């Protein structure tokens, strides 16, 4: 047979649409770096009719170890090794495949197709900063925070074309430029790090949830891991935001979703193999129960499988992390993100629903490249054992997690309970005392990410009955106890609401984030008297905390709550801070005799928020429903 040769050079996602002709549409990761501690890299190559192609790479230091095929002939997975001495540059993936071409009634001929796919290797230039208990994290839902660029509010070629601030379920147009424009606001407040709800592309159609059509403005249904959503500004805007945040001394934490993707994810339109997802004979939802996983003595395999492999919701397909190609795809994206954007930490969504050995492997890959990487996992559990099970712990268990930090839901519940209960046996401040008394279960409770509310919870100010004294008690505790605290956007200016009838009620726009807003809560002039009182309370305490070794890295000593008061100390060799919390309805006087073991040698103190000097520490006046943060002096 006669042979013809067709040579194609594909740049980026260029696609030549010839029937049956091999082509490449995507390569993930989109680039990589020399000098990674792990020399292995697996390229996902997607196009048309790639199976059977002869693949070669001729680049100094790069070895093609194996070409992996799967059920779908449109995918190849290439295993590469990148030697330590490899130089940055552009390598070419060369593919050659012979296909038969029928032209009219003539006899079929063999046609040799050659494809050249460039792939860039870069020099590593990002140095993530360490996020830990020294930080105060500010949580932002980008679509609802500030609209810095109205031109990217909506795109007609995306599945959801709506942007409408009057509709609580639609996108509202907040973006990354809006976050960048308010970096000084975060600095003024005393925040040291930003955590953004997911910024990755969510090209999802609106879905019917509870009888209302809702957009994926929250960001938890990824459709392309290697693109930041255009409605937020895309990769360039995210890179600029991270860069500018770092210049201001602010760190950045990214929200990771490994458990599932959006129903509109590009891979799902032509999956590599059926087992890319967790498959069931009939649709099976997760039970949302943590007990089948942590019950190592009495649990059963059936309940365990449903919890781990059932889908979170029908429109968020569940990834099969036991598929090695899926696992590599997710892990490499995490590494790529740190190197490409320079982020400083991760918050992992729906942690307990992931395959936990996979999560250990993913975390370990990040630690190998970035030993001090902050990774915190979301587990909305309500008991300390379950929360500790999913992180580094001191419990003798067959499974040992390597996750450094939990989102501390147990303490969050205790804080809100304590403020809404009368002081009694096991109630009020005793709830907080009980939770902290079991911190020995964690290897490092200072890394527990603590909070009073978030994007999935009723707003804190509403939960405590819009009581400003309770507000100060809860946030004062948050900023002075152990852990790594975060604050949900708007809590500092008393944004409120319950999740009734939906989450949208607790995800309202930050006032002043849009040019058309009548007032701006970003400025003192735009806030009313109560809002300024709340803002200034957080600001004063957060900025004191920033420079306090005792509050950020010191030890915690707590005393049994008595007479409606809870007293604890943060201390180290340089500083001792005494915190007195009262939920009494009347003023009290506190005798400090029983605190002698830690107060010995101190003669006076300075109350941090008011600036008042406490000249005698023998007996301290404690106003009703108050918190005092007292730096002890000799």
TrEMBL record:
Pfam families: Alpha-amylase (PF00128), Cyc-maltodext_C (PF10438), Cyc-maltodext_N (PF09087). InterPro entries: Cyc-maltodext_N, Cyclo-malto-dextrinase_C, GH, GH13_cat_dom, Glyco_hydro_b, Ig-like_fold, Ig_E-set. Residues 139-545 form the Glycosyl hydrolase family 13 catalytic domain. Keywords: Glycosidase, Hydrolase, Signal. GO terms for molecular function: hydrolase activity. It comes from the Bacteria. Coiled coil: none annotated. Residues 1-19 form the signal peptide. The keyword Signal applies. This is Glycoside hydrolase family 13 protein. The lineage of its organism: Bacteria, Pseudomonadati, Bacteroidota, Cytophagia, Cytophagales.
């Amino acid at each position: 047979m006669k042979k013809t040769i067709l040579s194609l050079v594909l740049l980026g996602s260029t696609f030549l649409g010839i029937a049956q002709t091999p082509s490449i549409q995507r390569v993930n990761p989109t680039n990589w770096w020399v000098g990674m501690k792990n020399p292995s890299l697996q390229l996902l190559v997607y196009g048309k009719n790639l199976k059977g192609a002869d693949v070669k790479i001729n680049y100094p230091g790069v070895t093609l170890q194996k070409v992996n095929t799967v059920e779908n002939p449109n995918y190849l997975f290439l295993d590469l090794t990148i030697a330590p001495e490899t130089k940055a540059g552009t390598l070419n993936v060369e593919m050659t495949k012979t296909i038969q071409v029928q032209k009219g009634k003539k006899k079929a001929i063999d046609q040799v197709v050659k494809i050249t796919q460039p792939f860039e290797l870069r020099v590593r230039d990002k140095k993530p900063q360490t996020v830990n208990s020294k930080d105060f994290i500010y949580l932002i839902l980008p679509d609802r925070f500030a609209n810095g660029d109205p031109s990217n509010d909506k795109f007609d070629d995306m599945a959801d074309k709506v942007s409408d601030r009057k509709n609580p379920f639609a996108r509202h147009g907040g973006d990354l430029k809006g976050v960048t424009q308010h970096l000084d606001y975060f600095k003024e407040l005393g925040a040291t790090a930003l955590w953004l709800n997911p910024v990755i592309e969510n090209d999802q159609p609106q879905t019917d949830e509870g009888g209302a059509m809702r957009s994926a403005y929250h960001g938890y249904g990824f459709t392309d891991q290697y693109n930041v959503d255009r409605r937020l500004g895309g990769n360039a805007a995210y890179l600029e935001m991270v860069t500018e945040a770092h210049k201001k001394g602010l760190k950045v934490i990214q929200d990771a979703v490994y458990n599932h993707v959006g129903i509109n994810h590009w891979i799902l339109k032509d999956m590599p193999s059926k087992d890319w997802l967790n498959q069931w004979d009939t649709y099976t939802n997760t039970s949302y129960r943590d007990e089948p996983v942590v019950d190592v003595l009495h649990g059963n395999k059936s309940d365990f499988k449903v919890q781990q492999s059932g889908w979170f919701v029908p429109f968020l397909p569940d990834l099969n992390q036991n598929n090695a190609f899926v696992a590599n795809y997710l892990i490499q994206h995490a590494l790529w993100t740190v190197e490409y954007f320079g982020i400083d930490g991760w918050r992992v969504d729906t942690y307990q629903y992931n395959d936990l050995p996979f999560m250990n492997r993913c975390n370990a890959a990040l630690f190998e490249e970035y030993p001090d990487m902050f990774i915190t996992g979301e587990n909305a559990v309500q008991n300390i054992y379950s929360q500790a099970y999913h992180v580094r712990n001191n419990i003798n268990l067959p499974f040992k997690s390597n996750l450094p930090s939990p989102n501390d839901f147990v303490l969050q519940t205790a804080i809100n309970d304590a403020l809404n209960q009368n002081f009694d046996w096991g109630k009020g401040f005793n709830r907080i005392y009980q939770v902290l008394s079991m911190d020995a279960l964690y290897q490092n409770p200072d890394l527990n990410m603590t909070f009073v509310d978030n994007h999935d919870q009723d707003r804190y100010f509403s939960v405590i009955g819009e009581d400003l004294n309770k507000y100060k008690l809860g946030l004062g505790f948050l900023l002075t106890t152990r852990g790594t605290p975060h604050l949900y956007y708007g809590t500092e200016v008393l944004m409120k609401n319950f999740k009734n009838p939906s989450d949208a009620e607790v995800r309202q726009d930050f006032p002043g984030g849009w040019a058309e807003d009548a007032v701006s809560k970003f400025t003192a002039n735009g806030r009313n008297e109560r809002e300024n009182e709340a803002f200034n309370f957080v600001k004063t305490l957060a900025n004191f905390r920033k420079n306090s070794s005792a509050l950020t890295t010191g030890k915690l000593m707590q005393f049994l709550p008595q007479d409606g008061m809870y007293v604890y100390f943060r201390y180290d060799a340089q500083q001792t801070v005494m915190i007195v919390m009262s939920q009494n309805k009347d003023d009290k006087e506190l005798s400090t005799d029983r605190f002698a073991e830690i107060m010995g040698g101190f003669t006076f103190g300075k109350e941090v928020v008011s600036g008042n000097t406490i000249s005698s520490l023998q007996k301290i006046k404690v106003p009703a429903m108050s918190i005092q943060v007292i730096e002890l002096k000799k």
